[in-house]
Backbone:
């Protein structure tokens, strides 16, 4: 009868929390440098807020809360006989757990539109829940770290998000490449090949270029129903190469007849110019295969990949022109990105990039031989805490070996041993657990040393 | 069709988050000073973990998650006809939202017993959910801040929790009184009046002494079925007064024949002695009317009240000897307290004790007259951010008045105005929004000033 937790969920032990907090604290401090403020929304939202926002599949993946009290009371005899899952679900459940932070954010903006000062720069770091099949690296509860500006269509906001990406990964020590594209360019490409409805097929095929080569990509496009002429028109796009500037120049020729395509090119050129002004020193690659979340993105789209480790996208986002439209507030443009805490956690682990020291943990343990020694240690511990040091006094009177093992397992670097000799000379015997070194120290000496 | 959130839940806007984070950061930093480490557990627990732990009423207040997929499949025809809510709930729901942090903590300890180093000092700050009827100050989602030591029965741990209470409220600037009692003393009192099963009635009556006076308390005890003799035996306890030491001395006489009562007295005396050794400078009052959570507490119990404002208990907890017993791991003694973030929030608001400045917010906004000025401002903003300042550049080219209004509403103290004159002289015009004062500054001067 050993207890367990629901599949796809996790406990976080102290050593994992230190690492997770390191990631959260890093992104938060960078978000703040750029004037973003934190909000939080409830774990539960009304199902009317959530349903229909993530597609049919998404609706199924929502965790739904059974109505409180007599949840059967809303059901009639026919309901039970009919036994239609979606219809009955609707009658026994009004609330669900949030599936992402984007829809609750849009709901927040609309609900608080009169109180919000636009442009509204917010960040939000909270768990989300999805009833996905659990598998390696995919959980049913995980944290998202979202940062968004809404209420401005200035491309200056895209610059700020790029700067935030640069600074976050500089601080974390992860080498990354930011892939950038523009939804308007993708629309332009589909337009000039005369296949506006095939935009996703085209993007998916382009995406495989590296892996399967040009011939097979062309074959796939034909298989998907693209006429030979459209495939021919795509060739210059498929063979696009060179620097971002060169790619944009070629695209300008290729998309000359697509107004929306040209607007997408203009936008990216402005963003690149801003990056030069701001001396952004990040690998940025114009990547036409990048398509993500085509449903609500309307302008620039981003994805960040770590260079030194095999891992999917660790950050992503883009510009949306009408996120709040679903809640009856049209024409609020915004742009946002989301940092994937779980994947960043894995990257830092794989590359062994966590800081070796942390101020979260205990720096020193007083190991005591008896009750008198313990009472003596209390005062020393108080003085050290006043100086801002995290210290512990071992609570039980047990063998020194056990107290040492405690310090060792908790990765406490110093143990101050207190016996009757030390009490008489008003010192402690400080042992450095890393080096094994020992020395008798006064309180003043000890405070200076740790 | 304005969207809304479920009743009893809340959004937290930026200015509320700053204040909440101030509370959380304060308690966390104090917890760490004493060597407590953070853990987190999933929002969802198996219902088998939660049910039966909070009494029958508690079971009803659990938010239950509808099983994913075809949740009807577990039901048979008879189930539906019978329509018994508890039986059907059991068949359509396996998981629930955590109701507190204590039961998940006990589950965590048992599940991870092989990995945990005892004594295990943990803190946990996460939301909990209860399907209570929402009312003023009572929410369906709220945060708990719990700090516990398990795996030691040393009263030294009680001292540490008292020191944590002292330091947290010193830092927050709230004057408090810590009420302390001992479950063993309450058991002893019931024992010596010969009414072991009437412990709660007796405590409830004692609790009213201040409000209704001795005569009415005695009448209430008789009404509850206590014989006259028992009420007479209770008189010295009801009239107990003086310092904590004096009260304990009187109690030692009164409870002379109750072994468990005497042990409770011994425990409190030891705790008071530790407090003297540690130079604890907190109002501590032995309060025999304090009974809280009689179900699992077995030793010292605590409650903290703010002195300068009418508010219920803002922190509470106690010693439990067998919390993990419910999950098959007996004899793990522990002691813990929980800080009530929502009530502390209200106390700080009522007493206007929040710090006037915060490092979370934007310190300076660059207000710009045009695109060239914006690009100029980017470099200044970068330099200031390198120096750790939170700064913003207004993203849109709009009237100066609008940019000023933005700074004003966001409580940004400084605005650096950039026009063509400033660009030529390589300065900005810094305006202090509090004083209205303006001065032209170089980057170096600006960095020093803010």
Residues:
């Amino acid at each position: 009868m050993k207890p367990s937790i629901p599949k796809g969920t996790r406990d976080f032990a102290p050593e994992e929390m230190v690492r997770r907090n390191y990631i959260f604290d890093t992104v938060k401090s960078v978000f703040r440098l750029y004037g973003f403020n934190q909000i939080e929304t409830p774990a539960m939202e009304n199902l009317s807020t959530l349903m229909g926002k993530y597609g049919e599949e998404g609706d199924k993946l929502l965790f739904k809360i059974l109505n409180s009290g007599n949840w059967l009371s809303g059901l009639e005899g026919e309901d039970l006989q009919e036994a239609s899952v979606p219809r009955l679900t609707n009658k026994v459940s009004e609330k669900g757990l949030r599936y992402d932070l984007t829809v609750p954010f849009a709901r927040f903006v609309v609900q608080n539109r009169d109180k919000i000062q636009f442009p509204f720069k917010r960040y939000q770091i909270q768990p989300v829940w999805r009833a996905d099949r659990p598998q390696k690296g995919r959980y049913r509860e995980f944290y998202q770290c979202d940062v968004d500006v809404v209420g401005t269509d200035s491309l200056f906001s895209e610059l700020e998000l790029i700067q935030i990406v640069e600074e976050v990964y500089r601080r974390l020590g992860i080498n990354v490449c930011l892939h950038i594209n523009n939804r308007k360019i993708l629309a332009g490409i589909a337009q000039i090949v005369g296949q506006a409805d095939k935009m996703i097929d085209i993007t998916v095929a382009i995406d495989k270029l590296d892996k399967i080569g040009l011939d097979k990509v062309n074959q796939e496009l034909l298989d998907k129903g693209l006429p030979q002429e459209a495939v021919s028109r795509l060739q210059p796009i498929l063979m696009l190469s060179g620097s971002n500037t060169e790619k944009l120049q070629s695209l300008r020729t290729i998309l000359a007849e697509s107004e929306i395509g040209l607007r997408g090119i203009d936008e990216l050129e402005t963003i690149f110019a801003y990056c030069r002004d701001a001396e952004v020193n990040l690998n940025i690659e114009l990547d036409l295969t990048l398509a993500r979340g085509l449903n609500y993105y309307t302008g620039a789209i981003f994805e960040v990949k770590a260079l030194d480790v095999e891992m999917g996208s660790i950050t992503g986002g883009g510009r949306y022109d009408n996120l709040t439209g679903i809640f009856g507030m049209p024409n609020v443009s915004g742009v946002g990105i989301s940092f994937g805490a779980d994947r960043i956690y894995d990257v830092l682990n794989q590359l062994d990039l966590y800081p070796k020291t942390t101020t979260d943990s205990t720096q020193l343990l007083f190991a005591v031989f008896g009750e008198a020694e313990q009472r003596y240690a209390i005062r020393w511990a108080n003085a050290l805490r006043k100086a801002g040091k995290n210290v512990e006094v071992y609570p039980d009177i047990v063998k020194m070996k056990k107290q040492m093992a405690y310090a060792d397992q908790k990765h406490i670097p110093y143990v101050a041993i207190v016996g009757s000799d030390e009490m008489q000379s008003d010192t402690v015997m400080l042992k450095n657990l890393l080096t094994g070194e020992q020395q008798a120290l006064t309180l003043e000496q000890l405070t200076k040393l740790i």
In short: The radius of gyration of chain A is 29 Å.
